[in-house]
Amino acid sequence: MEVSLAIQVQEVLGVQVGDSVKANFGAVCGPGSRTAGLKGPDGSYAGQGSSGYSGGKFAEPIGMYVIDPDDIGIKLLEPAIFEAVPAYAFAGDSITLKGKRFTKSDTVLIDGSPVQTNAFSDTALPFAVPSLKGGQHTIQVKQLDGTLSNKASLYIKPKIDSALQDNQITTRVSPGKKINLIGSGFSESTIVRINDVNLRNVLNPFTDIDLTELHRKHFLDGSKTLLEKVATTFPNAKVIVTGCYPPVSEHSDLSAVEILLVALGIVV
C-alpha cells in the first residue's frame, strides 16, 4: 500500500518521493486543470469554562494592623514564658517556668485550670504537677487583673506505682487473670507492654537490654545459635528475619496459646 501510494504521488506531482512540497492556494497544483482548494472558515471560539470554587475563610486571617506605642508598652508588661523545665514530667513532679515579669500573685493555668504556685522571683515560677492524664498539655500564667502570658507546653508521662491482682498488690502476677495497674499519667491511648521484649532486641547480638534468664536463654541465645548455623551452612546467602511467632513457655496463658494454634491452622 505504501509503495503504490508513493508511485502515485510521483506521477501526479512530478517530484521525487520524499521531497517537500508546499501548496499555494489558487495556483495550479499539478498536471491538468486542477487547482488547490479554498481556505476553510475559521474555527469557532471555545466555550467559557465553569467557575471555580469559592475561597475558604480563616478564623484568624493574616493581616496588617496598626501598632502604636501604647500597644508595645502593654505587651512589655505582660508575663512571658520562655520554657518549662523539665518539659516532660510525671504527676507530682516539680516544674519551673522560666520567663519574665512574674509576680507572687500569679497563677499557673494548665489547660485553663488553675494550679497552686510559689513564685520566688520575677523570672522563675515553680509549681507541682497535679494528677492529669498522660499526653500534651497547655500552660499559661494568669495575673490578678486577668492578663495572660503566652502559651507553653508540658508532656505528662505515664507512671506505674503498683499492680493489683485478686484485690492484692503484688509484684508477681498469674497468667490468665485480670491485672489493675495503679499509677498516674494514663490515657486512652496508653499501651501496656510486658517485659518489653521484641524481635529487634532479641536478635541484636550487641543488645544491652536487661533480659530475664528465661528470655535470654530461649530468645537471644537460641536465635544467635540458629543464625550462626545458617551463616556457616550458607556462607553466600543473605538471611532476612521477617517475623517471629509470640513466645510460648510454661508461664503462658494456655487459652491464648489455643487461640494462636487455631489461627495458624495447627489445630481445629
What do you see in this structure?
With 268 residues, the protein is of the alpha+beta class. It folds into three domains: 69-156, Immunoglobulins (Immunoglobulin-like), CATH 2.60.40; 159-192, no CATH class; 199-264, no CATH class. Helix content is 22%, strand content 21%. The chain has a five-stranded mixed β-sheet with strand order 2-8-7-4-5, with no helix packed on it. Strands 1-3-6 form a three-stranded antiparallel β-sheet, with no helix packed on it. The longest helix has 21 residues, at 213-233. It is flat and about 100 Å long. The two termini are 71 Å apart. Residues 1-13 have low confidence and may be disordered.
Following the backbone from N to C, one meets helices and strands in this order, namely HHEEEEEEEEEEEHHH
Low-pLDDT runs of 5+ residues are: 1-13
Identify the CATH homologous superfamily of the largest domain.
Immunoglobulins
Placed side by side, the strands forming the largest sheet appear as 2-8-7-4-5
Number of strands: 11
CATH architecture of the largest domain: Sandwich
Q: CATH fold name of the largest domain, please?
A: Immunoglobulin-like
The largest pleated sheet is described as: 5 strands, mixed
CATH class of the largest domain: Mainly Beta
> Helix segment count?
5
- Let me know the average pLDDT: 75
Query: In percent, how helical is the residue content?
Result: 10-25%
Strand content: 15-25%
Supply the helix-strand structural class.
Answer: alpha+beta
Terminal Cα span:
71 Å
Q: What value does the Rg take, in angstroms?
A: 40 Å
> What's the domain count?
3
| Mass-distribution shape | flat
